[in-house]
């Protein structure tokens, strides 16, 4: 790519229409030198970098993460049931482009939410739409929309996110109606959008929290598991880990 085209592309990316037209005119009339183009390109590089960084921060903000964690902050040595290389490769991949899901199953406090957010963060900083929501809040929002006659609008809202993270499935039981509403969302996103699920219960117990509806539960799981990465975290609680570190430190001080 020639220098003039490179500079013009950056002006177009920054939506500087007047500057774009003026530079094009200068170039056509041979009224701009290579050294001037080089200096202008150097300045525009900084502006493009700043815009890219702002875009990253915007997508992370929209994602509504309760906290921001990266994959580098996860202690894989404490949870050997998780393959570190596979998890890092997944975070770096474009799994969200083909509607692949990720499901984390494990006891409370084993790092499921941390991993879900770290993958969501990696997707968001690539300028993709990501949204994080607790399962209980999601169900409340869907039920409210159903009662108000705005369910279709609400489903479309959750559908638009390239990656939807639904946290803590299993902490609250829901009704049969709510299970059907949840299925509508899962079915709408099936093979088109990616979803990350974290849950503290194994799949055979899902009917108990999904309105005791075996048929709807099976339909939900079929959609979620058809194209998915499944991780079963069997390690100890992170709270225990932090307590162990504290006890070790206190012992050393003594």
List the helices and strands and how they pair.
Blueprint: H1 3-13, H2 17-28, H3 34-62, H4 84-92, E1 101-106, H5 112-124, E2 130-134, H6 135-148, H7 151-159, E3 163-169, H8 176-189, E4 194-199, H9 206-209, H10 214-226, E5 228-233, H11 238-253
Parallel strand pairs: 1-4, 1-5, 2-3, 3-4
Helix pairs in contact: 1-2, 1-3, 6-7, 6-8, 8-10
Keywords for this entry:
254 residues; alpha/beta; single chain; 11 helices
Describe the structure.
The longest helix is centred in the N-terminal third of the chain and has 29 residues, at 34-62. Strand 3, helix 8 (176-189) and strand 4 (194-199) form a beta-alpha-beta unit. It contains eleven helices and five strands. It is α/β, with parallel strands linked by helices and 254 residues long. Residues 243-254 have low confidence and may be disordered. The chain is 57% helix and 12% strand.
Percent in strands: 5-15%
Number of beta-strand segments: 5
Radius of gyration: 24 Å
Main beta sheet: 5 strands, parallel
Shape: elongated
Output the strand order for the largest sheet: 2-3-4-1-5
Number of helices: 11
Helix content: 55-70%
Order of helices and strands: HHHHEHEHHEHEHHEH
Mean pLDDT: 90
Could you give a quick summary of the protein structure above?
The chain is α/β, with parallel strands linked by helices. The protein has helices at residues 3-13, 17-28, 34-62, 84-92, 112-124, 135-148, 151-159, 176-189, 206-209, 214-226, 238-253; strands spanning 101-106, 130-134, 163-169, 194-199, 228-233. Strand 3, helix 8 and strand 4 (194-199) form a beta-alpha-beta unit.
